[in-house]
Structure formats: structure tokens, C-alpha cells
Fold:
Amino acid sequence: MRSQLKHWFFVYFIVVFNSAVSFAQTKDAYPFESEIKSFHKQDSLHAPQKGGILFIGSSSIRKWTDLEDRFPDKKIIKRGVGGSEIWQLNQYYTKSILLPYKPSKIFLYAGENDIASGRTALQVYDEFRKFWSLVKMKLPKAQVYYLSIKPSPSRAKYHEEFAKANNLIRTFLKDKSRGHFIDMGKSIVNADGSADLSLYESDHLHLNNKGYDRWEKVLKPFL
Structure:
């Protein structure tokens, strides 16, 4: 009897362990799957018009809740995935929430989470070049705008690496006829270069409405 109990306990352990591993692998293989499925559902109900203006990237895009309302005369498509990194965009999402829309303009905010999770400025730069190549291969006429990594107060220890990534991408885009680097940081700092905390939410990471007011002014000429 005791040996049978041991046997069934062992089997149960193996099943539970394998299920956990399988779930973890699935989760790791396709991060933020629920958000992507939500976008797919939106698209099935109301597909965005081709040739629109796509805002894509991490939570700085996702949390800009009134983005479309700020530019009512523009065909804005917002596809922000909170917490996402640029390598994930390249590996998983470009084919599903970028290329199908065939946007005329692409505004990308990504790279901040990559560096905060341990990647270097050079790795972010390399991933942006991959993003550029992916887009240009399928949408050669699309204008690509890289929104610089912002100096989030809660991530002060990464600011030097943020600046390196911004400079590398800025230099890369200088000779690209359909590539643009937009400095978003200048609009949300004080005169001495320090972050203006009044423009951030309490987490000192995400912008509040006042912060997005500043970004709106910066972006308006490019839309």
C-alpha cells in the first residue's frame, strides 16, 4: 500500500511539474499574449484603415489613454503593450500589430524597459536596427519616428545608458530619408535638466496628463 502511495505521489508530482514548466515556457514564448489577443479582437470588429498613423511600443503608449482624442483629424492606431521590450516587438508582434495595418507613419516608443531589465544601450540599438529592417522590407514607404527614451525619475540609475541608446539611434537615423529621431526628453525636464516630477504619476515612471500635454506639442508638427 505504501509503495502504491509513493508511486501515485511520484506520478502526481511529475504531472504537476510538467504542467508548470509547460505553462512557463508558453508564457515566456509569447509574453503579453492577452493584450495581443485583445488587439486582434478589436481588429476583427473594426479593422483600422490602411495608411494610418501607428503608435506602437510599451506602456508610455498604452497609458496615453486620450491619444486619439488629441488628434481627432488623424487616423491614429494605438498599439501599446505595457512592459514590453523592443526585442519582443521584433520577435513576436511586428507581424500581428504593425504590418497588417500598412501604416504610413510609425511612432515607436521602446527600449526603456529593455535597459531596465538588464540589456545594454548597444543591444537596444541593435534591436532598433532589426526593427528598421523589418519595417523597410515590408513597408518601404513608411515614415519611422523613434521617440527617445525618457528620463524616468524612478530609473535614474539607467539614465546614462538611456542617453547612449538615444545617441546611437539618433546617429543611425541621420542619413535615413524616411527615418526620424524625436527628442521627447527635453519637453519633460526642468531648466537645469532634472526631471519635472509634476509631469509624472506617483510611480515617477509613467507620464500624467500634464506630461502628455508636453508630448502632444512635440509630436504635433510630425503628424
User: Anything to note?
Assistant: Confidence is low (pLDDT under 50) at residues 5-28.
